[in-house]
Amino acid sequence: MVANLYAHRMDTYLERVIDGELATLISGLPAVAIQGPKGVGKTASAGRLAASVLELDRPGQLATLRGDRSIIDRLDPPVLIDEWQLDPPVWDAVRRSVDADRSAGRFLLTGSANPRDARIHSGAGRIVNVRMRPLSFAERQLERPTVSLAALARGDPAVIAGHTSITLADYTREILASGFPGIRTGDATFRRRELASYLDHALADEVPALGNIVRRPQSLRAWLQAYAAAVSTTASYEAIADAVSQTSRPARDTVIDYRDALTGLWLLDPVPAWTRRGAGIERLGRAPKHQLADPALAARLLGATEQTLLGSDTDADRRPEYQRFRDGPLLGSLYESLVVLTVRVFAQPLELEVSHLRTHRGEREVDLILTSDEGDVIAIEVKLAEAINERDARHLNWLQTKLGDRLIERVIVTTGPYAYRREDGIAVVPLALLGP
Known about the structure:
The chain has 18 helices and 13 strands. It is α/β, with parallel strands linked by helices.
């Protein structure tokens, strides 16, 4: 029997929003697969719920499983199968086991990659997939939130209030620190090295391990750097490829391969376009808004530091091939990435669909649209500013004229010190005060 080796780590564990979701799911479902980028905390969260653990990155345990797949039925449940992608047939073994016994709480699977060529069943109806993302801002425990997204989604008439001492410099440091639990706690110099190593390993080792043949590794890195420069924008993939130097510019088919490989590693996390019909809005754009798994990865790819970001003088701000992507400085795009990451973490257990709105020609844009199954909408704008004016609110107020009562809440997330409700009903909330 393989014991749970994670119990002794509970005293240092950082509580995650996903923990409650996982506990609920495993109490009613036979198998749950937790998916997300390497180092995001999947094993630590799943390990708290598991009675038995199989760590497939340990050669001995991997060999045991390959020699006797029925071991998964003899271990005490819930059985955590960690890094399952190292032995893709185990996915089908779990599926068949669930077909034979659908008792709740049998299996937890964690994986940091989707095997490209492995022939596995989807698991539909047997294994439920859950996305785990890096730490939201609230999970970093730098401030006590006063505004709950769950309460906003319920339509609770709670007072929007609160004060924070978190400043723009603090947000900038958090962007660079990352939401990877094992990286963010170190010295800034070491964090930069760890993030660079994380990216090097992903591009040089993990992409080929998925079965992708990268003939020009420098081209893959150059394309990912251009993608990082385009975060929080809807730049076309052609424009991103055009931003790569001619010596490294990838062909169209190669770009598709890059996207598939990096998506398979959960490193790309674009926000889809909101395309709900019947909204009374003509010609909505369909392009996704680009995001990496963590804004710190984008910052590291672009060589950004606290000094360059706060001085609005990064390489990404100066290079003309990158300037076409954004209207403002890189810090604004990275701050939006941090807000998007945070909102997505909160929205997932609430079963809110997260998207963005942009009209065809870009006349109207709303950074985040949260939609419930009932069709209720929360619209969120992100502003790298302390003070909010009428121009900042115009797209939210326009959307209210289109959606009427379906738009149950309008929010502007800022870097300011106070949360409050404007006279027009818009909630102004500093990111540090926004909680689950």
